[in-house]
Amino acid sequence: MNITTLRSDHIYQKVAQASPEEKLELFRNEMMAPFMKQWQVQQIPFRAEEANGFDVVTFNSMMHRSPDQITPQISPEVELISSDSFWLECEHAVKESLHLFIEHEINLPVSEYLFTIQLGNPENRALTINEGYSGFGGIPGFIWGTLLPNEYTIPRMKVALAHECNHNVRYQFIQWDHTVNLGELIVSEGLAENFATSMFGGEWLGPWVTKTNAETLNWHIKPVLREQLQLTGFDQLAPYLYGDELAELQNFKPVNMPYSAGYACGYYLIQYYLRKTGRTICEATITPAAQILDEVKGFWDEETIISG
Questions:
Q1: Of 20, 24, 198, 222, which sits 20 to 30 A from 181 (CA to CA)?
Q2: 298 with 249, same domain?
Q3: What does pTM read for this prediction?
């Protein structure tokens, strides 16, 4: 297994010193080009002329600092993610996460991995509602972390990367296509967050779970989601997974769901599954959602207790 770290701090430093005319192509070639295979899978054009002005940089700039924002003025942000110890901690989290599956005798089809951490766009509401950190790992072989760097988010980056590594492994075994349903995404997010806390401890549980209280989960979220598990079409299922505010930011129709409803539900659903079956989180990660959901029918009727 080969894990490559793309040191974004070095790229930010170069782009910050570049002329306004050079910034865009420098950023595209240094930060975006190493992830070319991911963009191809996601069908996002590498250059704007290929698709009416929309390309990888436009897409990336929704959540992250755009090339024109990378100036000497953001040097304090760059400095916060420039220590060798920070990058070693992140790399260790990725290595430990992936090796855990090998230790459980799960042979990973993908052997080459690339990860980086990017500075988030402070104007992005989807990021700020997540307390300033996030990630993406749904395309096997590619893992991203995103943060608004501060004392809260920096130590949580390793946990977010473990969460994304879990997605990365799952989608080496589970096919993702247009037929993916809400049940799969609830299961997937529950697996990823249980995996991350199994590695680092429950005190690192993300806000996408901790912001939901027991009353909301049991009497508002669970009764609705149990009836929507077969729902397909991302525009249809996104409001149930992310909640109304995040869905509306993507121009999806709200469905009266609170923040990250599907994430919180998935976390406790997978806890129920692991207790009931005695399976390890690694075994569960590569198990089809239909099989997991079949084992947890009692979860929907049982009141979930939230401790802490």
A1: 198
A2: yes
A3: 0.97
